[in-house]
Amino acid sequence: xxxxxxxxxxxxxxxGQNVTFRCDPISEHNRLYWYRQTLGQGPxxxxxxxxxxxxxxxxxxxxxxxxxxxxxxxxxLEIQRTEQGDSAMYLCASRDSGGRSTQYFxxxxxxxxx
Amino acid sequence: xxxxxxxxxxxxxxxxxxxxxxxxxxxxASQSFFWYRQDCRKEPKxxxxxxxxGNEDGRFTAQLNRASQYISLLxxxxxxxxxxxxxxxxxxxNTGTASKLTFGTxxxxxxxx
Lengths: 114, 113
Fold this sequence. Notes:
The complex is a heterodimer of chains A (114) and B (113). Chain A is mainly beta.
């Protein structure tokens, strides 16, 4: 399967713990996005990478959130000191550098904070 | 006010019916428009792009009215397999920016026998 992959698919954690998610984009895609989706809402943009550079961050991305894409391939999203409000589906998407190219989404990581 | 507004539904229609979804967007700088489909507990998948002249893909027709900042999706001859949430999506394309997708809340469609 050459699509976007995410790991883990599900994560249950206790409030206050740190969690880290991984995204592997489609191999030739240099642009990578993280979105968050809560129940009954559409996905909301969190952050964007072009190659290894993090070029844009949403105001939703508090200082407890950090994202990296160290070699311009896979990306990680870490949430420190998780809160119940962090419970959501975290989606990763990638696209190539074409001006109007489509973003392809991974299956998401569903986070539940108890 | 949300940047992209949709009626959340649900729309319950019988098989074979025609159903239409509408969406409005507030950012007049929006340049690209899409409908994504999302099945329950799955990721969004691109259904179709929306062009100013309107476009059709089989049973699906999308329309864009830039003056009214309004997008529509028409599904003809609904199938059970069309049951899903349909997300209206806009983006601003600028060199050097994210070209991030801005989603509506989605409209849920349930097609019944």
